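Inverse folding, one chain.
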C-alpha cells in the first residue's frame, strides 16, 4: 500500500504526519520553530521531522509515494516566493530542497489550500463537487471592547451575559449575510466553516444558518448547507498529503 507524507509549516511549529491513501493519519510529530527562523534551519527541521514520522509509523521508505508541504505564503512552481510568517524568506525552492534530501516527489502548496483539500478528501465536503470554506478567526473586536478571544466571549455568554450574547448574535448575523453573498456569486453546494470561532458549539453554526435564511433570496438555484469542518487540528497535514496523493494519481 502506498502512503503519503504531509508537512504543515506554521508560524511557531512544524507538524508532520504519514497518511494512508484513504486519508487516515498513521503517525504524527510536531516540533517547535526556535529563534532561528531562517529557511535553511526550518527546511532542516522539516527533513528531520519527516524521517521521525516515517520511523514512528514503521513504514518502509519504498512505500512512501509522495510528500506534500503546506506553508503560508505564495507558492509557484515549487518555489515559496514569499511567506507570511517568515519575512526573510524569498524565492525558497522548497520542493527541490526536500526532494534532494529525502529522494521522494514533493509538492508545495499554500496552507489554506491544504486545509480545503483535507475537507474535500476526508471531511465534511468529501461528497460534494463545489463548496466554499471560510476560516473564522478566534478574535472579536468592538469599539468599546479591547481585543478579546472568542473563547472568552462564549464562556461569558454561557453565564447569561447580555453583552456577550449580543456580540455572538452580531457575528452570526454578519456571517450569515456574507454566506448569502458568496452563494449568489459562486453557487456552491456547501459552505464549510472552520477555525477557532466555528468550534464554539452547534448553536453558533445554527445562528449563522438562521441569519442566512433571513437574508437569502428564496429563488437561489440550489439549496445550500452550512456545516462545521470535521478534519480538525491536523487538516494542514492531511491536506498537504492530499496534494501529494493527487499529484501521484495524475502521473
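Residues assigned per position:
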Amino acid at each position: 500500500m502506498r502512503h503519503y507524507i504531509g508537512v504543515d509549516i506554521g508560524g511557531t511549529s512544524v507538524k508532520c504526519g504519514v497518511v494512508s491513501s484513504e486519508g487516515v493519519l498513521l503517525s504524527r510529530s510536531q516540533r517547535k520553530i526556535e529563534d532561528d527562523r531562517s529557511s535553511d534551519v526550518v527546511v532542516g527541521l522539516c527533513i528531520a521531522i519527516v524521517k521521525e514520522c516515517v520511523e514512528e509509523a514503521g513504514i518502509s521508505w519504498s512505500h512512501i509515494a509522495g510528500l506534500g508541504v503546506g506553508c503560508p505564503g505564495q507558492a509557484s512552481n515549487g518555489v515559496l516566493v514569499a511567506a507570511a510568517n517568515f519575512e526573510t524568506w524569498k524565492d525558497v525552492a522548497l520542493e527541490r530542497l526536500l526532494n534532494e534530501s529525502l529522494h521522494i516527489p514533493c509538492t508545495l502548496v499554500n496552507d489554506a489550500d491544504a486545509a480545503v483539500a483535507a475537507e474535500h478528501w476526508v471531511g465534511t465536503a468529501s461528497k460534494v463537487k463545489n463548496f466554499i470554506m471560510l476560516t473564522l478567526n478566534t478574535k472579536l473586536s468592538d469599539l468599546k471592547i479591547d481585543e478579546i478571544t472568542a473563547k472568552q466571549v462564549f464562556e461569558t455568554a454561557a453565564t447569561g451575559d447580555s453583552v456577550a450574547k449580543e456580540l455572538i448574535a452580531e457575528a452570526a448575523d454578519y456571517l450569515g449575510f456574507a454566506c448569502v453573498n458568496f452563494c449568489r456569486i459562486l453557487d456552491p453546494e456547501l459552505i464549510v466553516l472552520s477555525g477557532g470561532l466555528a468550534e464554539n458549539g452547534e448553536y453558533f453554526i445554527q445562528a449563522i444558518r438562521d441569519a442566512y435564511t433571513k437574508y437569502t433570496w428564496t429563488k437561489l438555484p440550489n439549496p445550500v448547507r452550512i456545516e462545521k469542518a470535521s478534519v480538525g487540528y491536523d487538516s494542514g497535514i492531511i491536506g498537504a498529503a492530499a496534494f501529494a496523493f493527487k499529484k501521484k494519481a495524475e502521473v
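The chain has two domains: 3-123+233-250, 131-228. Residues 235 and 247 are 18 Å apart (CA to CA).
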